[in-house]
Each structure stands twice: as C-alpha cells, then as structure tokens.
Amino acid sequence: MMSIRSKLSLWLTALVILGTVIGMILFESMLRQAFHDSIINRLEEDLEHVIMATEINGGQIRINESKLSSFYQPVFSGRYFQLNLSDDEIRSRSLWDQQLDIEPLAKDEVRVWQAKGPKNHDIQLLSVGLSSNKANTTGTLTVAQDLSIGRQVFSEVYGTKLLVNLAMLLAMICGIFLVLRQSFSPINKIKQALTRLRNGDSQTLELEGIPPELLPLATTYNELLEYTSNQIERSRHNLGNLSHGLKTPLAVMQQQVEVLGLKDPETAEALGQQLEQIRHMIERKLAAARITGNMLPAAQMNIPKDIDSLVSTLAKVYHYKKIDCQCLFNAELSRLPIHREDGMELIGNLLDNAFKWANSQVILTVSLDNEQVRISINDDGQGVDQDQLALLTQRGKRLDESVMGHGLGLSIVKEICEQYDITLEFTHGQTLAGLQINLWMNLS
C-alpha cells in the first residue's frame, strides 16, 4: 500500500502541474487575443489616417502619402494600404509591385480577415467600403499589417513566460517534497521512538517534539502501555504469591509423607515423587516470573541479553547437573522478530527441555539464513527415535514418564510457532548426539 506521504506528493504534484498547464493555456489564449486586438486597433487607426490623407482634386482621388506615416515608404515594410476604385487602384509604395486581392465592399461595409501578402507572409487586413459624392465614385480602402514580426514578439513573450512557469513549477514541486519531508519528520521520530521501545531501550514513547495532531495518539499509546505493564506486573506478583503460598502446604505434605513412609513405604515413595515434581514446577514458575516480570508489552526479544538471562536462570534450576551451555550468535542480529514475553516462553521451554535431557552440554545457535532467523538448540542427551519425533508436539504427550514434567512445554512451543508463523523442526543432533530443535522465523 502506498504511504500517505507518497500519495500527498503525487496528488499535490499532479495538481500543481495541472494548474500550471491550465494557466499556460489560458495565458496563451489571452495573449493571442490581446495580440489580435492590438493589430485590429492599429489597423483602425491606420484606416482613419489614410482616409484623412485622401484628397479629391478635379474629380480625381489621390492619397497624399506625405501626410502618412513613413512606414508606408520602405518596400515591404510590413504596413500597407490599397484603395480599389471602379476604374483605378492606388497602392502604398511599401507594396511595390505586389497587389492585394480585395473584394469590393458596399458603403460602410467592413471586413476583417487574414491572407498571404508580400514575401508570402501572413498579413492581417481591414477593409471598408467608401463613397464620394464629389468624385461621384465608390471604392474599397484596405489597410494591412504583416503578422510575422508580431508573431515573433508573441513567441518570445510566450516562450519567456513558459520558461518562467517551468522554473516556478520545478521550484513548487521541490517545495512540495521539502515541505512534506519536513512535515512528516515527526512521524519518523515517532517511528524511531517505537523502535527503541520495541528493542527495550526506553520505557515509554517520548512526547517531546510530537506535533499536536499526533500528541493524543501518542499519549493514549503511553497510557495503554502503562496499563498493560501494570497488568503484567500484577500477574507476576500473583504468580509469585501463589508459588510462595504453596511452599508451606508442600512442606507439611512432605513431612506427612515421611511419617507415612514408616507404615507404607511404597505409597510414601509414590507421593514423594509427585511432591518433588510439584516443587520443581514451582521453582521454574518462580524463575519465569523473575525473568518476564519487567518486560515491556511492545518489546521484542533482545539478543544476546535475554537468551543469556534464560541460560543463567536454567543453570541455577539445574545446578545439580552442571550443564555447559554454549551460545553462538550472528553479529548482525540484535533482536528476534517476536514479542519478548512469547520469545522467552518459546526459547525458555526449548532450553528447559534441552537442560532436562542433556547429560552435560547444550549448544544454542542463532544465525541468519536466506532472510530468515534460524535458531538451533542441540543437547547431548539420549535423543529421540525417528518414529517418535512427530509425537513431541502433541499436548500432554511424554516419551519418558520417568523424568519430571507434565508434557505441556513442547505443545505450548507449537502454539507460539503457529501464532508467529515459525517453522518448528525436530531432528537428530548434528553437533551433539541428542535431540536438535530448529526454528525458522521471518525477519519482517
């Protein structure tokens, strides 16, 4: 989907270009009309001057060019007149040997048109029908002006205007991109703040520098973040209180089992095993509460910090086994694309399983493979037979009932993998002899 900034840039650019094109079309039309009107006004003035310079002597009509503008003297000067009488024709010297093709007009009849003139140039003509009682004759007086010079001036003016408009258009387009970039810079700051929040580098979204339009949204987000953090903190406390509360009844029950052992050793041994499982489960839940209690709701899992914390906690839980856990990380990766609490639950369960079954060594590897993060956990335990690997993710299924646990850990792992579209694979170990668990998760 196209971003808002890109949409605004395209729409504003399109509107500016459209406005410029429409403006240039209107300007060209108005300039052309003004050019035409100025030519007609000049021809009307020339027509009056020629009429005023027209004299009748002895019944003969002639035009006194000394009373006219000097423009009519040079040959093909661009300004011409021609008087067509019934039996004669009077032309300006500027026409030289050229003759204008004029249609006779009735008295006071006016005609405006364009035609080809000297040098095959386009000329604008204005004709009017005349009549003289003294000379007892009628005629058609025509004045004309060459359009080539005017059109050249028109082209220069319009070309200059076009260049200026194009320069202004480029300046406005650049201005649009600069203004939008500056206007959206607070959003980029918010994006960076969210990234810091996701990576766990800050506790709340910074409100300084946020524009008023986005301030309510950022404030609401901080309030929601604080509410969720309080809920997680409350859940941690409740879990801790529950675990601590169970310790006293558990101690009493163990004492009763010891007393029962004097009368019924077999029953006492069975109950003792179950009580030991409950005790270890309480210890693990307390450890998980210590790990996840201060997490931000929006934070992603940080590596190696969070994984090191898991390893350290599990090393304390399984201190009696003295497990050597090696962690190998890709230097380009600083976080995993998964919510931190879910990531701790996912990898915590897998590491807990590896520590549980390992004899003395566990290897955890985080690498980058074809735009995917690959997490591999391998232990040196006895491993799992090929036909039993598929049973590992079934809820409540345990392949060895002699080891403490309820069999829910790996099924929870599968649920989290399905939620984040993570590929989960169980294979025989490549580095160590036991079970190897592989996870593939997309970076985006």
Task: Summarize the structure in short.
With 444 residues, the protein is of the alpha+beta class. It has seven helices and 14 strands.
Describe the protein's architecture and organization.
The chain is of the alpha+beta class and 444 residues long. Helices cover 49% and strands 20% of the residues. It is built from seven helices and 14 strands. The strands form four sheets. A five-stranded antiparallel β-sheet has the order 4-3-7-6-5. A hairpin with a 3-residue loop joins strand 3 and strand 4. Helix 3 packs antiparallel against helix 4 and helix 4 runs antiparallel to helix 5. It is rod-shaped.
Reconstruct the topology from this structure.
Blueprint: H1 4-52, E1 54-57, E2 60-63, E3 79-85, E4 89-91, E5 110-116, E6 122-132, E7 137-146, H2 148-198, H3 215-260, H4 265-292, E8 300-302, H5 305-317, E9 324-329, E10 335-339, H6 340-357, E11 361-369, E12 372-379, H7 409-419, E13 423-428, E14 435-442
Parallel strand pairs: 9-11
Antiparallel strand pairs: 1-2, 3-4, 3-7, 5-6, 6-7, 8-10, 11-12, 12-14, 13-14
Helix pairs in contact: 1-2, 3-4, 4-5, 5-6, 6-7
